[in-house]
Amino acid sequence: MYKAPVEEIAFTLKHVAGMAEAIDSGLMGDLGEDLVDAILAEAGRFATEEVAPLADTGDRQGARLSNGEVKTPDGWRDLYRNWAAGGWNGLTAPEEFGGQALPHMLNVATLEMWNSGSMAFALCPTLTMGAIEALNVHGSAALKEKYLARMVSGEWTGTMNLTEPHAGSDLGVLRARAERRDDGSYRIFGQKIFITWGEHDAADNIIHLVLARLPDAPDGTRGISLFLVPKFLIHDDGSLGARNDLYCHSLEHKLGIHGSPTCTMIYGDGKFGEEKGAVGWLIGEENRGLACMFTMMNNARLAVGMQGVAICEAATQKALAYAKERTQGKAPGWSGSGMSQIIEHPDVARMLLTMKALTQGSRAIAYACAHAIDMAHRATGRRGHWQERAALLTPVAKSFATDAGVDVASLGIQVHGGMGFIEETGAARYLRDARIAPIYEGTNGIQAIDLVTRKLPLSGGEQVKGFIAELKAIAEAVRSSNLDGFGTTADRLESALADLEVATDWLLSSLAEGKSAEALSGATPYQRLFGLALTGCYLAKGGLARTADEAGEGRIVLCRFAAENLLSETAALKDRIVNGAESLAAARAVLV
Ligand SMILES: Cc1cc2nc3c(=O)[nH]c(=O)nc-3n(C[C@H](O)[C@H](O)[C@H](O)COP(=O)(O)OP(=O)(O)OC[C@H]3O[C@@H](n4cnc5c(N)ncnc54)[C@H](O)[C@@H]3O)c2cc1C
Fold first, then answer.
1. Can you tell me the distance from the alpha carbon of 269 to that of 533, in angstroms, rounded to the nearest whole number?
2. Which of 86, 231, 324, 412 sits CB 3.0–4.6 Å from 206 for a disulfide?
3. Could you give the CA distance from residue 158 to residue 128 in angstroms, rounded to a whole number?
4. Which pTM does this prediction carry?
5. In the annotation, is 441 catalytic?
């Protein structure tokens, strides 16, 4: 059973991702390290003792639809209410609406724990948090006044309605319609698919954020507006009113996250209310909806990255426990009677160490991204720099961690042997759950395009170059530490960073020369190269800070393992980026 790794999370936040420095510089307000530890400890307890034990029920039962109403798995309604009563929904939300205005770093750390406990469960608050942020940044004072406090408390949940059957990655073609009404409200019509927690019985109201098009809107992404559309309309005194004209038509049958209802939502077909059309209110300006939604999507992208980290952690814990118990064969050097534990076999140790290194690497990348977001809000100067850093890291955090989630969950099954394929063991659920994360919130392919075409050119390429220079300083610090335990880590980091630098320069010059097809051919390998180089550097940073906690030498040996076993992949990735485009273009002829 999952046990939240509270000390490891605290260490990574403070000593790898930059929280300790930020606290020392007074940028985190009243937050001190002791309070961080106390919050993490309580989140860890709740995730371990309350969320994780209900994950299997959720997986087996799934969400069930009957007469347009969705019933969550047994125990989940109370679980959600207890979770919300703990104040977890409002960790980063504004104080004026009942939130605690704490740093994003703390929130992503707790998100990791909820998701390790149950990814399907944690999706509900993940969507609500994104909706809170979009409404807080772009909503009118009246809308905020009416909705935010009860979303922050978790009494009402939020959703994100973008996708339609023909509009997924390309939202420019979406067809949901909005009509103006004289009283300033709008009526919404259309169908949305794949809406996470679009209907359920855990909260009293559901606040849908819906993208739709006004009759006179321009074509494409410049003609999309964002609307707030509640399941129940709200009276002026704040009490719940009539059902709005929207409902869940059906639930998807999915590979994983069974406890999370994935809904087809119908807006405005006259099922509820006297006048056809779901009543909605504009968020932000007309035709500027996609920009508003992006506020929510960036938040959600990092949150999805946390799902990858969370699955890595939970799958690694399970595999490690199994490998210590299961005995088979005799490992090299085994002198005991009987069979050795499988963890003694070098190949099993290789799998487990790979899992551990990817878990810690993706955790550090995601927390560093959250640190950049916090600095962009709290730093006394250079906020633009931190905004760019967050923008650069978001696609890497989302994609590297979610790919790692799939790889690590698959390795976890492999460590279990045949038992890994048997549902009862629980290792298979991690892979089934993990598989969606590289797809939603912008597929990892779309993240790679974003990274290469929009993020590398930030500040004329200076943001990424400055970041690589900072990473080189970590390699240098490893070299000058003269610690034997690091082995050849300094050399390996320098090679990986040289590969990253060459690939970055090549992509930037290809883009400048208008060779976008060539650059895009290498976008996904580049994204992985970036994530691997960061993994090596952040593990090294943890190793260098080893005195800060008792795990001590273990960080250095894990870093060395990653540097000498995983980082050699960066050379191959660089080669694919720089030399792979021509053959890729030529070989498209065989795709007939
Ligand atoms: C379980 C689940 C929950 C979801 N929850 C929500 C939700 O709450 N709200 C919501 O609005 N949506 C939700 N989605 C939808 C999800 O965000 C989309 O599935 C996702 O954005 C991909 O869109 P698509 O499925 O239409 O795939 P497509 O866009 O058709 O993509 C198919 C493939 O083509 C690639 N591709 C597409 N365009 C390009 C391009 N320009 N360049 C290169 N490659 C490209 C993609 O990377 C992908 O590999 C959910 C989906 C699922 C399965």
1. 52
2. 231
3. 4
4. 0.97
5. yes
